[in-house]
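So, does this match?
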Amino acid sequence: MEQEFVGKLVFVEVSTVPENLEVAVLYDVENTAPTEVGDYLLEANIVDNNYEGNASATLKVMEVIGLDDNDVTRKLVVYQNPTFGQLLIEDNSDRADDASLLLFDTQGRFLRSYFKSKLAEQITIDLSDQVPGKYFIYYMKQEKIGVLKIVK
């Protein structure tokens, strides 16, 4: 479970069956939701005399930085932008790391994911099947996210 860091409390939403049961959520055994970037153990317990249930997961609060001030995207070369189909992203950073890329449209709909191995210096993104418009690529590397704005 991943959440973008927004500088304030990061709450998780839970659902139950049947619906609307009260659930107590602990974040690293604390009642207070996290306010910092990091990994947090989540524990959720149903608080109801007629029902039982619990779940646990890890919440990863990740730093999101804009295009101009981001170490992740500052070392990227993106061309051809605007594109008619093929987009090449070249990672010129000193450190070779795996990277995950997520493609979204302007309505926030997830369209596709990509993976760039630390052995590859570049990745090609094929947008030829997408309608002309604006897109966002979330480039995730070293637990940081950079956002690339793409025009087709």
